[in-house]
Predict the 3D structure of the following.
Amino acid sequence: MKAIELEKTFDPEKFEDRIYKSSLEKKEFLPRVKKGVKPFVIVIPPPNVTGVLHMGHGLNNSLQDVLIRYYRMNGTPTLWVPGTDHAGIATQNVVERKLLKEGIKRLDLGREKFIEKTWEVAKDHHEIIANQLQKIGCSCDWTRERFTLDEGLSNAVREVFVSLYERGLVYKGKYLVNWCGSCGTALADDEVDHKELDGKMYHYYYPLEDGKEKLEIATTRPETMLGDTAVAVNPDDERYKKYIGKKVRLPLAERLIPIIADSYVEKEFGTGVVKVTPAHDPNDWAISERHGLEKINILNEDATLNSNVPEKYRGMKVLDARKAVVEDLIKQGLYIKDASIKHQVGHCYRCHNVVEPYMSEQWFVKMKPLAEKALDAWKKGEVVFYPKRWENTYKHWLENIRDWCISRQLWWGHRIPVWYCDDCGKMIVARKDPDKCLDCGSKNIKQDEDVLDTWFSSWLWPFSTLGWPQETEDLKYFFPTTTLVTAYDIIFFWVSRMIMVSLEFTGKAPFRDIYIHGLVRDKHGRKMSKSLGNGIDPLDIIKEYGADAFKFTLAFLTAQGQDVLIDSESFKLGSKFANKIWNASRYILMNLEDRKLLDFDKMQKNDIDRWIIHRLNEVTLDVEKAIKSYRFNDAAKSVYEFFWDDFCDWYIEASKISLYSDDPGEKDRAITALLHLLSESLKLLHPFLSFITEEIYLKIPGNEESIINSSYPVFDEKKKDDKLNSDMALLKDAITQVRTLRSEFTIPPGKKIKIKIKCDKDFQAKEFFMKNKTLISLLVAASEVDFIDSKPTESGNIPISGTGYEIFVAVRDAIDVPQEIEKLKRDIEKSDKLYKRADGKLSNPEFVNKAPAEIIEKEKAAKEELGVHIAKMKSYIAELQK
């Protein structure tokens, strides 16, 4: 057999794209359906078609790929559905900004032309996103790719809207909503980001109708007084009981408004008097409903003041109006003071401008009936969160849910399937576009101008992507899906809603396992953002280190329940590991020259072969347990430590005894074992490092099919050998101690040493040590290894103590003794200073009483370690001076 030579330098750019393209051509990412076998299914959290993938997407999709490749290799029919989200507000904002640069406004362009432009942008960004996912190595089934605005999903959206309307769960009404004046649309409660800002509490008077008395008001938004329709006090507040039923004169607007009693008002808060602005505050809205108050909207859709306010303020922006109102109150002698405060202010989650409470006619979903089913499913264990603590978040949100405002004043999105007849005034809610009024027959009908919230299509994602509302074969076989992998910032937006709507329309939870990973942050714990300049482009990392280094590093660093703190340098971890895999494989394949491969299962195995088989078997079980409980870092760490430490540093090194022997048969046996175990190790690694394992695997003689189609190692009780593993652990410890001593005495690697080993009578590994004398000699670079019954009497033998054995290393012939003694003395002198410094700190009551407990413990540990080190160095000198 000829040697196989991998390139000297590991260069992922040379094969990653080729391997991915080959997998697509061979349709290796498509599920292999097995009737009666439950599949493993993931639907991708669809990225928005507004830009490019960031590190959060990189993490999310890397973890999904690990799961998909693992279960695929385990023989499970495996489907990963890719797709993208049309992202209503976000995409419309992108297109509007792009048009403005060309001097074009959306309204000038018109609805149809604007939607055409938006489709162009969406398609361009879709191509970018799909290419990025492929560059990362995502093994999605691209033949099943979906888009939230494609025809099938549009049918599903319409079916759900109409059905919910028919069930009385969708309704239209004039209510208070969150309004983004910049985007010109309503927002759901969970689309509002609350930020703490510096603000002011403004105090001023409302004169009573008779002009003799006045009431003090305090508010953070004085401009909203122009929409006040009452003043409220607590009915039990003795200070104000006499005013209930009277009226105050509303300054600037010159309207009379009533003083009412409502228990919502807290007597101890502020002055105990509250202005009531029903159209611009949710609490005031509730008060107005109880008291039948008028609701006066003072804002236009662009968040400027409208015609319901005095002419002076019309057209002003909110902050300008606030300033003008305060100035006018001062002029009228009604202003008291203002005080600086910090308060929470709602912002649009897309454009980040301030959101205003605004009275508007919108479409809503009644959420409580849906939420009750979702809560019940969780209580029954039909959905399980990893980590478990997110169940509390889920439960709290569902128990306190409010109706969902689903209409958006946008052009890009699923247009609401409702038509209005101009002749008879009837409203038509239909699954198919009507051509006439279903009541009077008039052709004079027009569709609702609004579109549905983006999340209204996204919440259908797990079953709409599989063909619902049609009863497709995919829906029958692949639904419910298995696992959802997502970040914690969209539990409200998406996760909870998917569960609700799936239970409502399919009677099943859309998935059982919900793995919530953390956010990707920089090394300082800050969220990555353009403004901070701390973002990392996944493609930059892949270009520098490769996709395998990218995926492995993220999996290795993703501890359950924690955010991932990284910078570009972090990915050197995965890069170094990939290099290790490459170099180890290269070494093995180079040793194929003139070798004959044997039947691995039938050939004789030595102790080290049986040990590495045991370790591979154990790690296979560790990975299985970690993957099934979504402990990605534990799984990645297990394969890393096995390959780097057990396979490379111990097994490959140990195999050199056989590989370099004069016996051709022993060489054949050794190379057969190395190739077999390399193949199995590559399978073990494949879910985490997909490209390099594929590239090497197909170069190994006998491997004819792609690694992606091979079987993942399976734990086998028969391969366990705990006694052998325990013996090997003792041997490794002994060898490591001898190597450490060589390092302490700076003995060059090429300089051979002589060692003597004295084992206790009941030492469990005595026979194993003696049997593997040649291995010990090789791994510690010894010219002689002798087993003795009593301690040697000759000087210069440095003792090493282990559990059940002692090793004596004859260093005298390997070093310059006088020079070494001087070096050890300098070491003791330096260590002694550090010891005394630590001792001084620990003897100082002020330090002990004031320092944190962990600092004190650290100092104690350092002192103890230095004491042990000094004693050891002194023993070395004593032995050398004999």
Summary: The chain has a mean pLDDT of 93.
